[in-house]
Amino acid sequence: MMKKKLALLLSALLALSVLAGCGSKSTTGAETSANAQTQTQTETQPQTQTETRDTQSAGAFTPDGSVIFEKDGVTVTTAGLDVDPTTEDESPIIWVDIANSSDKDAYLGVAGGSVNGVVTEVRLIEFYMEDGTYNGGNYESQLTIPAKSSARYALGYYGTGVPGISLDALGEMELCFTTSEDEFSWYNYISEPVILTVDASVPTPDITALGTVAIDDDRMTLVVGEQDYDDWFGPEVYLYLRNKTEKYIAVSPDSAELDGVSCDYVLGGLAAAPGKVAVAFLGFDGEAKALKGFENLTLNFSFSEAEDMDSMNMENSTALAPVTATYPPQIWGEYENGGLRMDIRPKYNDLITVETPRDDENGILFSVSETASLKAGGFEGAGWLFAIGTADENKLHELLCYDMSGVEAFAKDADGNYYIYYHPTDVRFERATVEEMTRDAEQWSMLCQWAEDMKDRFADQNGLEYVSFGNTDVDICLARAAWMDGVNATLSTTEYGPVAVKGMDGTPYARFVMQGFYIETEDETPDGEYVVLNFPDEDIRVDFFFAPENYARVVSNGYETLYQAVWWDESVSYADAMQGWYYAAAEKAGVKPADKSLAPYLGTWAEKIAGRGYLECAKSVAPGKVTITASWPDSAAVMNTWEMTAVLGDGKLAYENGHWEVKEYDDNGESWTTDESYEESGYFYLNDVGELCWHNDRVDGEDSVFIRAS
Length: 710
What we know:
Elements: H1 2-15, H2 29-44, E1 59-61, E2 64-71, E3 74-83, E4 92-100, E5 106-115, E6 118-119, E7 122-130, E8 133-140, E9 142-145, E10 149-157, E11 172-180, E12 189-190, E13 194-197, E14 211-216, E15 220-230, E16 234-243, E17 248-258, E18 261-263, E19 266-267, E20 270-272, E21 277-284, H3 286-289, E22 296-306, E23 318-319, E24 323-326, E25 333-337, E26 340-344, H4 346-349, E27 352-355, E28 364-370, H5 371-376, E29 384-391, H6 393-400, E30 407-412, E31 418-422, H7 434-461, E32 465-466, H8 473-483, E33 490-492, E34 499-500, H9 507-514, E35 518-520, E36 530-535, E37 540-545, E38 551-556, E39 559-565, H10 574-589, E40 603-607, E41 614-619, E42 625-635, E43 638-649, E44 652-665, E45 671-686, E46 692-696, E47 704-708
Parallel strand pairs: 1-13
Antiparallel strand pairs: 2-3, 3-4, 4-10, 5-6, 5-9, 5-11, 7-8, 7-10, 11-12, 11-13, 14-15, 15-16, 16-21, 17-18, 17-20, 17-22, 19-21, 22-23, 22-24, 25-26, 27-28, 28-29, 29-31, 30-31, 30-32, 33-34, 33-36, 35-39, 36-37, 37-38, 38-39, 40-41, 40-47, 41-42, 42-43, 43-44, 44-45, 45-46, 46-47
């Protein structure tokens, strides 16, 4: 939801300088009628249009076989309606074949757009292919089309994330194509609107039912929607604007008053092309941002209109009469147990029942159910949405040794306690009749989504640290090897043979690998060496390959399952971590000499001259590597930090792809990033007197010198 709100905010700002509905000419009533006729013809008798179109006039097309853009050797032809092949939410897309017959690269983009008459961001999608299947993609506002090339892309769009505005069904997509001189330039050409008709029966949403109709005249309908609350933005409301004119209009909030609390700066704003609906949320600053809700809202807006968006100028706008809206009292649910809090927003508070058991034997602190299902249910646990409990490290390790369906460790506090999110693995939705089930299905879905989001909200509210652990067969084997008593487990390679893992602490190694996760794959098993985690008493083993893709193979009772890592630290692979565990076990067993080569570098170091910069050097889970964190203030309000993994070789700890970040702090301790890089490189070395020297490739001058901190 945060990304959607930021996208809405950015769209509102851009819309005041870039057309939300695209071109520089509005579509007249006559043109609309002609477009409707074209839609009817193409729906009944689809035709492939191969002739050159006049791109200076708007046109309506079906998604199949229509040339919708042609300029300077670049041709865009529709190739059918589909759903995004890389997601599970069945997001609609329209395939397009883009060909560049010219002798130079072309830079093709889209500007603004609308779906079903609602202003939203239309994007070009470039999908990735792997083994003949789609494996992800990028949503781009601009693509580079190489000279003398052609490829298949897609047109997709973002939903609004605003209550009452669903764009799940694609009825009509409108957009403009743009061209520019290079990939870094703002466009220098924008086409007339292109209209792609999928299902003419899908209506533009009726915004009058979504809140208080504040303005309804011959220019616009402006609706102030329901109130909500965001942990980052504070209180917020949604705005809906329908443009009834044949000009472009913009409405910008100037100030607000919430229950008498003034707000001089309001986040939000709307701009709409003729006949279109724009949506936005309003967030408030200062004392108003600190409110948890309000009953009375007064807004002051500026209004501007123009023949095209390029001519829109809010400085020449006129003030509208104040707009008011009232809301019922905002009653929050405030619950406490074991020194932890759970606040429930008013939107959900009336719909749920929260239990706070004391001294629960399973560590449950909060259990949340839908009230209506509880009342209608005829079985134990009816309406149960989720529970949050606590576990110490031993209990966490015990949980991780088994299948954790419906159980997820998601946070940790400063005292080392872990927090567990429990959720049902079956549907607990209950009503007395089928009619009631149908009526309230949307409410149940909303509560299920809210329940999933409560993990992060709970962690943020209580100042907890996020954690993540996998629970595939690979992860379960790691947990059992590291923490389960009585399990016979060995690690082996051809280097030292099998060594027992018991008798040493495998926690850092198992934790490192389990913080990523593996997925099953049908890929071919890679060749090459691997580390074997074996359970000889159970005929189970896991092979961790050193192949670049980080594969693991589970062999159980002769049956093989191949897994591929989806995430890993780029500087340390999972196979590297398993080799580190193997070496540590081999040293413990006395079959491998102890490696003391890293010892001179480990520990805390302070910059020698002024003592302001500090380095923390710790042994990595991978052999021969050191994890280094550095901090160096520019001033009391500006801090530089580095994170890198260095490899020992030729008397140096060399690193690449390190992360550097600069943060500024205000008087309240709030911080923001002002600069960063993920391509830091350099090395550390010891001088003749044992001081640690740092050569940073990005920094000119002498290397920094550090001494051991006392």
